[in-house]
Predict the 3D structure of the following.
Amino acid sequence: MNPGTTNYPSLKGRSVFVTGGGSGIGAAIVSSFAAQGARVAFIDIAEEPSRRLAQDIAEAGHSAPWWRVCDVRDVAALQTAVTDAAAALGDFAVLVNNVASDDRHTLESVTPAYYEERMAINERPAFFAIQAAVPGMKRLGFGSIVNLGSTGWQGKGSGYPCYSVAKSSVNGLTRGLAKSLGQDRIRINTVSPGWVMTERQIALWLDAEGEKELARNQCLPDKLKPQDIANMVLFLAADDGAMCTAHEFTVDAGWV
């Protein structure tokens, strides 16, 4: 684990909930909050990576996270997880809507059932996780919600039109809730990653042509890592980002 280099005292002891936290960007986010001394809960559909992550965090000397295997397509299970985790850790001051799946598909291959399934993973969970977490934030008198977007649709990426539809809606969710939530000092922002070199991305998509695409499009020569995204999420979650709301923060090495 590489939890980043900045210390945010305001995060110590705060309860944080992360969707899709078992691997990739989500795991970096979970690990980073744990290293800040936060009380972290996460859900993920993959049991073994989640178990290893929790063990790694505990072995690093941090409080072991609360976690549960959860399929976010099941809204009742998602909201129950938020409620149960809050009962164990306290009302959540931070919610990170990270869960996503960028499976490739073509326009011609999409059926109504497949479209609904893509939205059930990539769009719907953020709304209903917010719905479940906001009452606790209102009790606290403050909160920070971070929705993970994407630069893929902004750069006119191809091969995942349903994913593009879902991820383009994240900014609408963020901006559409910012005013009403802000009255209770609940901030909501979007963090949009570029092409992050998770294990999955490297295994499935990074080939010689992909390397050329990175060199051609990024302003910076270094590859994005999950920790780069986690660092922005931490800032927005902490009191340091106290007057940031309703905005998109892009971490893409200058691609878009």
Notes: The chain has a mean pLDDT of 96. The chain is about 45% helix and 15% strand. Residues 109 and 115 are 10 Å apart (CA to CA).
